[in-house]
């Protein structure tokens, strides 16, 4: 799998999205995926090799690194991007199902297979809930795993097989902190966009139903 696959996927889903959904796609592609590939991935590339402790006790450095970085920042971001982006596959699958159903029955069953209405609207809303949910879950996971969103200059380790309290140093902590803040901010922005689009569609659907009921009553 390459990151190009996610770009193609998001570009394909873009044509079924609302205006807010298109802004979300742009934010994911430019401010998250592009920044991840071009800059962030290189910053954390050699994080284990550049993690140093002031002791040469065999195994001590590895144990301390595993304690403070149970999951690599960069791999957790990659998983977050994949989970958030592939949630949009639900919409694509539903549109493909509609198109195949029309071919199978050899007749026009929908005004447009990609129009957000009926069952496709429910699928679209579910995908928005999943995307917003994944964003929030991963933000909480980041915060819990690393005790905040700041990379410290120095961490103190006293885990076996370290014989005593050991000072360990993380490479480029300031640069990593800046990128952490940027990626967390973009993740929060995406979550807000998802919730906004969800609210917009629910309100729009509610208004349309109320108007239809009033029209029927008048008739």
From TrEMBL:
Keywords: Cell junction, Cell membrane, Gap junction, Membrane, Transmembrane, Transmembrane helix
Ranges for domain Connexin N-terminal: 42-75
Domain Connexin cysteine-rich: 134-201
Gene Ontology MF term list: gap junction channel activity
Gene Ontology terms: biological process: cell-cell signaling
GO cellular component, one term: connexin complex
Localization: Cell junction, Gap junction; Cell membrane
Top-rank taxon, per record: Eukaryota
InterPro entries on file: Connexin, Connexin_CCC, Connexin_CS, Connexin_N, Connexin_N_sf
Transmembrane spans: 20-39, 77-97, 118-143, 178-203
Membrane topology: Multi-pass membrane protein
Major localization listed first in the record, in broad terms: other
Subunit structure, as described in the record: A connexon is composed of a hexamer of connexins.
PANTHER family attached to this UniProt entry: CONNEXIN, GAP JUNCTION BETA-7 PROTEIN
Purpose of the protein: One gap junction consists of a cluster of closely packed pairs of transmembrane channels, the connexons, through which materials of low MW diffuse from one cell to a neighboring cell.
Annotated family: Belongs to the connexin family.
Name by which UniProt lists this protein: Gap junction protein
Organism: Atlantisia rogersi (Inaccessible Island rail)
């Amino acid at each position: 799998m390459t990151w190009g696959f996610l770009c193609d996927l998001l570009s394909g889903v873009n044509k079924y999205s609302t205006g807010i959904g298109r802004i979300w796609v742009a934010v994911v592609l430019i401010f998250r995926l592009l920044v991840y590939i071009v800059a962030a991935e290189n910053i954390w590339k050699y994080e284990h090799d550049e993690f140093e402790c002031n002791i040469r006790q065999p195994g001590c450095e590895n144990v301390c690194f595993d304690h403070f970085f149970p999951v690599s920042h960069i791999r957790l971001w990659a998983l977050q991007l994949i989970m958030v982006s592939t949630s949009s596959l639900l919409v694509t699958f539903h549109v493909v199902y509609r198109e195949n159903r029309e071919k199978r029955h050899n007749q026009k069953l929908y005004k447009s297979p990609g129009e957000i209405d009926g069952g496709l609207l429910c699928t679209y809303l579910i995908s928005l809930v999943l995307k917003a949910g994944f964003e929030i879950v991963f933000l909480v996971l980041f915060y819990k795993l690393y005790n905040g969103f700041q990379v410290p200059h120095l961490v103190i380790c006293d885990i076996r097989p370290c014989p005593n309290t050991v000072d360990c140093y993380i490479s480029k902590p300031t640069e990593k902190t800046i990128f952490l803040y940027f990626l967390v901010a973009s993740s929060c922005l995406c979550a807000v966009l998802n919730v906004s689009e969800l609210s917009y569609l629910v309100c729009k659907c509610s208004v349309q139903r109320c108007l239809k009921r009033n029209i029927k009553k008048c008739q």
